[in-house]
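Quick look at the format.
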Amino acid sequence: MIIYFKVANFKSIKEAVTLNFNAASISEHTESNVIYNNKSSLLKSIVLYGHNASGKSKLLDALVYFKWFINNSATEKQSNEPIDVEPFEFNESTANKPSFFEMSFTLGKLTYRYGFEADKNVVHKEWLLESKAAKEYPVFLRINQKVEIDYKRFENAEDLEKRTRKNALFLSVASQWNVSKAQKIDEWIERIFTVHGMEDDEYRKLTIELLNDKKYSTLINNFIKKADLGINNIDVVDNPIKGEDIIKRVPDELKDFFKKGFKERSEKAVFAIHNKYNDKNEIVGTVPLLLNKSESEGTKKYFNIVGLLITALLENRVVVIDEFDARLHTLLTKAILKLFNSSIIKSTAQLLVASHDTALLDREILRRDQIYFIEKNIYGASSAVSLVEYKPRKDSPYDKNYLEGKYGAIPFIEDLEKLIVNGKS
């Protein structure tokens, strides 16, 4: 589980911003929204709020980049390639300084703190520390190309610093060279689901895989039925793509090229099964509709992500979703939040989302420490503050107070009507 994630000097983030999953000492939803793990109390979910361009997406981008660089820096970079990090460009003091990333997390019975500082050319610093009780012990510490390693805690890592390029992470190299502890951390980070709510097609395949698995097909179908989408069942069939169908669509000058190179293949066709009624409103049959062509954008999004939501809950994984509420009804997004905050489901899964839907600012669903407000100052720098720091009363209407500007993080939009009068600018 994530304990906290911290980032500085990255995109719109200048000073360090921390998302803290440590539960505050408050008495709300203690039996549901909090997981008690290794003598710690960790939140099951966090929701980010802020106006457009406030930095919500940039904060989630930081976590996505943190994950990507750990999983790929040892294999996808050549020695002369730049690092794809983006510092805060709106201040001359930060534009040429390294970006900072750090995550504390639990893995088994141990707690780790891992982080790095990097600019476009080199990894300047990197560190991994672990603790089982209160005391923290360095596993390795890196400054530029010099790495100090505790080989008892990081077995089989001898001479790997010599194999680590200046633009690669030592942790990634150690994982590639079968250092067990590095592999476990690398694999755990890789298993974090990261989703953009407007571009969720990549997870459609996971939902289809679960539908084709007898252990999960009923569960997936029940999740879709209970969402009140008017769908009774989902069928997945192989849809062969024939050469002649493709060749008909291409220009004449390319037909010979396609005939030579085309290989017949199949793709999965997903059908949503609806009831068919007679004039007496009696069910007389079913109507299969191709999901991608006939269903709403919201239905398609829910189908695309339902597989990863179920997988995360069953496998205790972290889910990060930007534009969480896009194309989904408020009651459906509330249901997903309740799912992760459930006291009935015994899972250590965590959900981190960015949203504009103020209906989710509901004290019946979220604790005050599960709500963060992201705001950008006049100098273009984003900051994050938890609602619990404003010390509102437990019975406060969080949504009303937010829209009234009591917590900041709202846009100040001037009267747009005055810009156009009588059809003229």
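Next, a different chain entirely:
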Amino acid sequence: MNKQEMIEKIGQKRAFISDMDGVLYHGNKLLPGVLEFVDWLKRSGKKYLFLTNSSERTPKELKDKMHRLGIDVDEHVFYTSALATANFLSSQKPNGSAFIIGEAGLIHAMYSVGYSMNNINPDYVVVGETRSYNYEKIEQAVNLVLKGAKLIGTNPDVTGPVEGGIIPATRALVAPIELATGRTAYYVGKPNPLMMRIALKKLGCSRDETIIIGDRMDTDIIAGIESEIDTLLVLTGISTREIANNFPYIPNYILDGVFELVNVKNQS
């Protein structure tokens, strides 16, 4: 299949689930063609969801960030691992309590499903990305888990991309707690198919009608494969073709970036 045929097939999809960092932007820099791509999604009547494993920001904060970058979309098109984690825990134990190591996006999501904050005898210890990580919080989390709290990670990412390189992500922050307690965390975000199923429900589309766009083989692409959703790897983030070749599975499509998809506007 040549590139034009590939782009035409992708353009026939009814729904698009797109990762954000590495696909739409790097830090505070919009990637090439993203403005045109989002405009095409809107004008073509496509359904779309911007899905991120990051748990730091609320949908409103993500909307505001995109607005600063020149793109106007509604809050409801954003879905984060923080929201997925809150929904999962609410279904497991409604109106429970948690000790949280994380930022506003995670705290707000947990409050929104009726959870209370508890640093004495919580049902769960929940960890997401944060810049306020310290030894005291690790010590507290370790002892709460040893007393019976279940350990939850918002996502299994070890690192995340920023403009200056990479930063430790959730799995790296959970690791000391796992090592000290001998307990293994349950991770809710990609590649957990749970997040993909929730995304499809929000879109109201079937797997066959949908494609997931991502820059990471170990989260985005495997999430699509395990959920039986077509996958598009873009090379504007973590993965290169060489990195992709090292994995025992392959995406359905590989493009240099979403800027190549702007061509689909002439096909639909």
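The domain at 3-53+190-266 is CATH 3.40.50.1000 (Rossmann fold).

See the schema section for token definitions.
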